[in-house]
Model the fold of this input.
Amino acid sequence: VQLVESGGGSVQAGGSLRLSCAVSTYTFSNYCLAWFRQPLGKERERVASISDAGGARQLYADSVQGRFTISRDNAKEMLYLQMNNLKSEDTAMYFCAANWYPCEVDDPEHSYRWWGQGTQVTVS
Done:
């Protein structure tokens, strides 16, 4: 399984970005997926996660609830994170990650076996 993020960049506070994650696998719909982030010098934290199959369940960190939306497109094997009303505290390296079925949106970070290389988001 390979994951490749894209869509990061620099944006002013209040702006928007959409992150994308291309997932190379034969059984994309069997994976729970998530976005994590790691600010410089700080620990990695979960931003949002989405269930397998149709993605009916999502989980968001309190800090992004109502501003970020996670989604998946099984036909394109893509994971997305729409980020609106960005704040300076959203500045971090963002990673997508995959967890094999059976899985749930609240599975701990160590359950995610496959990770992308990350894409930087800077909000000023």
Q: What stands out?
A: Residues 30 and 106 are 16 Å apart (CA to CA).
